[in-house]
Amino acid sequence: MSKILIVEDEAQLARFVELELIHEGNTVDKAEDGRSGLDKAISNDYDLILLDVMLPGINGFEVLRRVRAKKDTPVILVTARDAVMDKVSGLDAGADDYITKPFAIEELLARIRVALKRKGGAVAATRQLSINNVMIDLDRHEVSADGNPVELTNYEFELLRILMENRNIVLDRERLIGEIWGYDYDGETNVVDVYIRHLRTKIDDKYGIKLIQTVRGVGYVIKEGQL
Question: What is the pTM of this model?
Answer without folding.
Answer: 0.55
